[in-house]
Automatic annotation (TrEMBL):
Coiled coil: none annotated. Keywords: Hydrolase. Residues 61-210 form the GAF domain. This is PP2C family protein-serine/threonine phosphatase. It comes from the Bacteria. The lineage of its organism: Bacteria, Bacillati, Cyanobacteriota, Cyanophyceae, Oculatellales.
Length: 474
């Protein structure tokens, strides 16, 4: 037979409210109550911090997140309220958010904090005064906040640190004279402050990302506009075979090439087409620098050159006019333009040209297999308003090939820093002209040689443009 112990009868004690007998106040019971209370407090703190962490992971609006910061900080520490003050990039301090359990005291707290921030903003933090004992902004702010809140308020403040830079202060306060800022409470406030700093940094990264997306979109538009301004394909010019390519180092570049019908206005007046034009401008240029600024100047150059070509002047006069018109704009932008301008006459097979300090095109003569440079004296466009340009001509023959290029080719660097330079280009041009039967094959070979020199998977540091013009063999 199993015996069951008889429970001990409780001693006489006052009843709890509602008529329920009160349990014995024993050390074991008191310990259980303490453990239960601590568990409840621990669970409450965990729940609050979890809510803040969830808000941090899912927030889309920084202002909405900042509203939680003083509220959570005060509740996890059983304080009467909290306040968030942020430092602005312009040096001003702003009371961003405030939370109080007592509405009446909240007005007093708000007024005190706003007065402290206004006074500190109005005075230079680097100049010590009777009210600001330190030039350090944080120390000065803590001093002002303490002074305006008064000695009856128990306050603790900690920094909002983002990227090793203090972005503000989180304050938590209590009116309870027996309230103590234990180490645990201070750690909890710092934890909330750290999450706030993460939210601020995340918001700034989001803003920067949006700016970058807008910039990428603008660059994409600029790239598309520039692509449309450059010839989409080479024109059909009687007696010539053409190939051309422009490869920008960035999305928008400063290299320029064009094929412009010189006497198109005359042909159009006679109801003709481009195939009836017997004079064509073949032009290549390079704006110093790359990227959007160079691309904008290239666009301006294209418009001015096309308008100038229709006037029917000699190549040197065209460069002279361009230099006069663009000088002021280029001088203000500290940029210059190299430009080689040539005109080909389909009837005489004469190439007339003038050079504004651009890389001289290479002429490979089919009859001799020799390469000569097509060059004239002349300074960069935009360097000297009074510079003079000169004209020259060369008689082309069937099979002759002219290679127009920009310095992106000759300046291309290998992994060890060596330059491709013009000597290598001349050797490759000579080989290509002897080996390949059409300009497109020559162009592909030359681009391939430069890429091989630069290295597989590596991009050149400058824009590269190439025009291959061959007089059709008989």
């Amino acid at each position: 037979m199993t015996t069951v112990p008889v429970p001990r009868q409780p001693s006489q004690s006052p009843d709890l409210p509602g008529g329920t007998p009160a349990p014995d106040i024993t050390p074991v019971f008191a310990l259980k109550e303490l453990v239960s209370r601590l568990n409840r407090e621990h669970n409450k703190v965990q729940d609050l911090l979890s809510s803040l962490g969830f808000a941090l992971r899912s927030f889309t609006n920084l202002n909405q997140f900042l509203e939680l910061t003083p509220l959570i900080a005060s509740r996890v520490t059983d304080a009467d309220g909290g306040a968030l003050i942020l430092f602005r990039p312009n040096g001003q301090l702003r009371l961003e958010r405030i939370h109080c359990q007592d509405g009446h005291n909240c007005q007093t707290i708000r007024k005190a904090l706003e007065t402290a921030t206004l006074q500190l903003t109005a005075s230079s933090p680097t100049v010590g005064t009777a009210l600001v004992p330190s030039a350090d902004l944080t120390a000065a702010l803590d001093y002002q906040v303490n002074r305006h809140l008064g000695a009856d308020v128990q306050m603790f403040g900690t920094a909002i640190l983002s990227k090793n830079e203090e972005r503000g202060r989180l304050y938590v306060f209590s009116y309870d004279p027996n309230y103590e800022w234990t180490e645990t409470r201070q750690k909890l406030v710092r934890l909330v402050a750290d999450q706030t700093a993460v939210a601020i940094a995340t918001d700034e990264l989001t803003v920067e990302l949006r700016k970058k997306e807008r910039l990428d979109r603008e660059l994409e538009i600029g790239e598309e506009i520039q692509r449309q301004l450059l010839p989409r394909q080479c024109p059909q010019i009687e007696g010539l075979e053409l190939a051309a390519r422009c490869k920008n180092a960035n999305r928008v570049g400063g290299d320029y090439y064009d094929f412009i019908p010189v006497n198109y206005d005359q042909v159009r007046a006679k109801k003709g087409t481009l195939s009836n034009c017997n004079r064509w401008s073949i032009t290549i240029g390079d704006v110093m620098g790359k990227g959007v600024p160079a691309g904008l100047i290239m666009t301006m150059l294209r418009g001015m050159l096309r308008a100038e070509v229709l006037n029917g002047h000699q190549p040197s006069r065209i460069l002279q006019h361009l230099n006069h018109v663009m000088y002021a704009d280029l001088e203000n932008s500290n940029r210059f333009v190299t430009l080689f301008y040539s005109e080909y006459n389909t009837e005489t097979q004469v190439l007339s040209y003038s050079n504004a300090a651009h890389n001289p095109p290479l002429l490979w003569q089919a009859a001799t297999g020799k390469i000569t440079r097509l060059d004239t004296l002349g300074m960069l466009i935009g360097l000297d308003v009074d510079t003079q340009y000169f004209d020259a001509q060369v008689q082309l023959a069937p099979g002759d090939t002219v290679i127009y290029f920009t310095d992106g080719f000759t300046d291309a660097a290998s992994p060890n820093g060596d330059r491709y330079d013009e000597e290598n280009l001349v050797k490759d041009v000579e080989y290509a002209c002897q080996t390949y039967g059409n300009p497109q094959e020559i162009l592909e070979y030359l681009f391939g040689q430069v890429q091989q020199f630069v290295g597989a998977g590596r991009d050149a540091n400058d824009d590269m443009t190439l025009i291959v013009m061959r007089v059709k063999p008989e």
